[in-house]
Specification:
Elements: H1 2-10, H2 20-36, H3 46-69, H4 83-99, H5 111-138
Length: 146
């Protein structure tokens, strides 16, 4: 949902297709977990796994950016936005670092836990009010569904 909310703020006319925000959140949370628990992992190919995941994620984001700004056919309509990919990765990294960081320490006692929770609540409230009022204020017309 952070992906679709980010698209509704940053790229208002672009459609959102699929669950790329959630996929990138899961992948980047896994990468954060690998980085934090590097010494404790017993997998001999952890560097290869990390590089492969980063290459796949980066190439897909690059492809999405390319298609967004350079569509294959001019009459094909608006291309899906890539901002869901990026916001999903940000949410995944922040939640991965926050939740998977320390198993011994209570989450509520960590200062970073409160900062990230406050940031997400602030973003959520901003996005809700943006979607209620910004389209009328900016005069953005969303094309009707075909």
């Amino acid at each position: 949902s952070a992906g679709s909310l980010t698209v509704s703020i940053t790229d208002m006319r672009a459609p959102v297709v699929g669950g790329s925000g959630g996929v990138y959140a899961l992948c980047s949370a896994h990468l954060a977990n690998v980085v934090m628990n590097w010494a404790g992992m017993r997998c001999p190919y952890k560097l290869l796994r990390m590089i492969l995941a980063l290459v796949c994620m980066s190439s897909e984001v690059g492809r999405a950016v390319w298609l967004r700004f350079s569509p294959p056919l001019p009459s094909s309509g608006p291309q899906p936005s890539f901002m869901a990919h990026l916001s999903g990765a940000v949410v995944g990294i922040s939640m991965g670092l926050l939740i998977l960081r320390s198993y011994e320490e209570s989450l509520q006692k960590q200062c970073s836990w409160w900062v990230i929770v406050f940031s997400f609540i602030t973003f959520l409230l901003f996005a809700i009010f943006w979607n209620i009022f910004a389209y009328d204020l900016l005069g953005v017309q969303i094309p009707p569904a075909p």
